[in-house]
Amino acid sequence: MTRSRSDSLGLLARADAARVAALMPDLPALQALRAPEIGTVMVRGRAGGTGAAFNLGEMTVTRASVQLDCGAVGHGYVQGRSKDHALRAAAVDALLQTSAADRIEAKVLAPLAAEEKARRTALAARAAATKVEFFTLVRGEDE
Amino acid sequence: MYVAVKGGERAIAAAHDWLAEVRRGPQEQPAIHTNAIRDQLSLAVHRVMAEGSLYDPDLAALAIKQARGDLIEAVFLIRAYRTTLPRFGASAPVDTARMQIVRRISATFKDAPSGQVLGPTYDYTHRLLDFRLMADGEVPVDGADAEPATEQVPHILSFLNRYGLIETEEACDAEPADLTRAPLELPADRALRLQALARADEGFLLGLAYSTQRGYARNHAFVGELRVGMVAVEMNIPELGLTIEIGEIELTECETVNQFKGSRTEPAQFTRGFGLTFGQTERKALSMALVDRALRWRELGEDDMGAPAQDEEFVLSHCDNIQATGFLEHIKLPHYVDFQAELELVRRLRAEVATEEAPVQEAAE
Predict the structure, then answer these.
(1) Eight-state DSSP code of residue B174
(2) Which of A27, B63, B225, B282 has CA 20 to 30 A from B159's CA?
(3) CB-nearest partner of B198 from A51, A53, A57
């Protein structure tokens, strides 16, 4: 498996909450180390795109931490306000450290990755159709 | 001064009940679902996110519905909700060079590397009402597709930068000041100014930006690049010991190229104005860039023309529409005690004048 832990967590964070729930209807037996909590993260930007950091504004984020019966600990940070989403992300993160990793990769992560890729490709294709070439015309007074 | 009043509970409750009824509109019409607002009034949603300074399209849609479409009231609701949430931390600065492009245009470089992408824009439309939208609400939708580009799209101004023709934005990771945590103090550094402008009222910034174009501290702005698209947000998570992506947000970024004659220490080169905003909020990002550039007069060694857009105290103290509307609208609330005092003052002044004038009148008679 080539997906890193941070890649998996990023994929889960960006995914639609309902889609994650559909791909993973049942949660494993777990204990919440940190109950799902809704909060914000201050998003930063850089002046001029590359310069000094500044505070752009906040986004909603939900986080949770869980421990499976086998002892594996997982953390989830997801965009938005779905506690269920954060809990499932944490559960996936924990399961990826167990023998269930391959099954979770095939059942949850691989479909999410494929769907995200398709979404991005569709967006890029739509954008590409609006790519323009501008020509400057010779103005009358120049002739 | 505002002095509390008592009473009026029944009238207030009835007023709020009526408000709820008016907000809903006639029962025979279907209620608007917040998903429909989020997806079909998306530019209103983006504006509420930008000025509410909270990226969450579902919440912004809810606020718009609750506020009967009053966007400043919606921004108010979002700002109030935000204060109830804990903050987990700050993200790494977003890398807009890695944006998935929805729109990317340049008014300065016709042949920008990676090309110009119009995206979903009202530019070049005829601004004619489309009555088909009123007739049955539906128009044929068949967007075209083309071979998708796969390469990253670099910032256009980085090409000018290569020849030293434009000032460099040196990366700096100093902890930026945060006006949501500490009151605004002047003079403000650029980071603090950009934060204030990013959440400022679009109309206020538009007016100021327009004033610079009309000659009040004119700075000859060209749109070097305007890009809209999806950007990943990364944050370091201490319990993981890892930096992960915690989401993906739509941003608008505008870089202007401005004239600069040079100073004693700097050769003649172009300078920059910068705008970055949540959502597809182009007018806001462009206005922000012009105002950012006008406010930079001191660090660039330019003259103070006495123009409003150059006046940091004026701009930063008045650009927030929630601060402004809070203070403005509070004068609608009962000020009976205040006014009573003013009334007595006016009566006393008039009485004094009448006493002084009385003998003169007698003499005239």
Answers:
(1) -
(2) B282
(3) A57
